[in-house]
Amino acid sequence: MTMNNHGRPTSPDHVPSDRNLDTVSGSRGLLQAEGLIFEVGTPDTTGVDLPKPKNRTGRLGGVARKKGTGLPGLSEPQAVRHYMRLSQKNYAIDLGLFPLGSCTMKHNPRLNEKLARLPGFADIHPLQPQATVQGALELIDELAAWLKTLTGMPAVAMSPKAGAHGEFCGMMAIRQALIARGEGETRKRVLVPASAHGTNPATAVQCGFVVDEIKANEIGRVNMEQLREKLQTSDDIAGIMLTNPNTCGLFESDIREIADLIHEAGGYFYCDGANFNAIVGRVRPGDLGVDAMHINLHKTFSTPHGGGGPGSGPTVLSEALAPYAPVPFVVKDEDGVFRLVEDMEGDASESFGRMVAFHGQMGMFVRALTYILSHGADGLKQASEDAVLNANYIQSRLKSVMTPAFDGYCMHEALFSDAFTAEGIETIDIAKSLIDEGYHPMTMYFPLVVHGAMLIEPTESESKAELDRFCDSLESIARRAAQGDETLKGAPYLAPMRRLDETKAARKPVLKWVEPNADSVAAE
After folding, report:
1. Ordered strands of the 155-157 beta sheet
2. What angle do CA 274, 278, 281 make, to 5 degrees?
3. Predicted local confidence at residue 10, as pLDDT
4. Pick from 370, 398, 419: which residue ends a domain?
5. Of the candidates 274, 328, 318, which has an alpha carbon nearest to the alpha carbon of residue 292?
6. 144 and 179 share a domain?
7. For 41-62, what is the mean pLDDT?
8. Residue 352 lies inside a defined structural domain of this protein
9. How far is residue 22's CA from residue 401's CA, in Å, rounded to a whole number?
10. In the predicted model, what is the mean pLDDT of residues 123-152?
């Protein structure tokens, strides 16, 4: 019996029953079983009949293929059904609440998609003459104006293609500013709080800096005593990389003092803007003393998130770093014509250089500006307030059965520890049990400063009814975890695949399909 054909429990308390729930087809209700495409099709068939060309000889000589490719042949219905069945195994924001913390899985309005497909945006080429793409350049300029206004920063680099790319942009600008001051070789130390996103220290190292960690205090914020000590005993501080609101879902209450201390020490303040969705319209990072901050358009302004596709991570820069922004960037001349500054001369003479071949990602720019214009300044502010309200509602609903990591209100995400669980029940068991309830698990074991962390981030678009539905499910699982319910350790029972050995899958992945040996299969 394959792993996909094990019995599934159906009793209300999720205790596996003795009843054999296997089906002949391998499907479960309306959820169709589906194998690999190599198992669906066969290499000796094809879904299309093409006549052999007449009177044609090959021109490949001795390098012509002598045997088949081994690729499966499928008819059109087979191919369509294969990918449709696979899509039904995906969890998506269009399907239900996405509780991942620190990732802001925001709803992508269909209006955004419609406008991104307009001629003049969807079909332009990066090598077109600039005179033929004036509308696109104007849109980029208008989006940049909004981002500068919302952050209180005088400049923005639009070309970074993702959040980590935006971090790289900000840190390269800091590096170039230090070089211009003649301190490029003497200031190499970057302070990074323990609650920072993992890309922060990696980016600092990639830019040639040395990372120095700052521990969190007992209330989940930067340990100010340790920060002061490091600044007093080091004269090589280049800056700090800090996330605010931080990865514990908390606003750094000493943020202004942190900025002042860093600046007094001769360093620059890089803020990770991944959680900007929590403060848009309420707080301007520029007013907090920030020198550089990337903005994840997918997290804050509703552009598609992940999937390996084109992203966008514009980076706003303070007056101190603006001269070092990368090329290209858009400017508007006195005659109203928009143009790209692409060479490191004139306005860009101090630029640290070029990050990408072309200028950002047009589709993401269109979607983000559509979202901004459809909300307006007041709507953006309300979206942030509703995101924080939803997170605090979840924390309030669950704090009687789960253990909040820190006292008091949270910002856009609620963080719990595993302190409420009985011995033997782990965070991973709660995550897998959520799958049986129809939800993608929340972020688990992150941030590392909280033992058995569970980080939940609802967005502003979730209704109270949907939040209650999620909380009811998680509350039930939490009560069973507190009672030491051993059936949690076997979850998920209702998913297409049962619990896998994820450690082995990561360390010894099977990356190639091998046709089973007919003799060995028959022997089994």
Report:
1. 155-157, 315-317, 292-294, 268-272, 237-243, 189-193, 210-214
2. 110
3. 38
4. 370
5. 318
6. yes
7. 81
8. yes
9. 35
10. 96
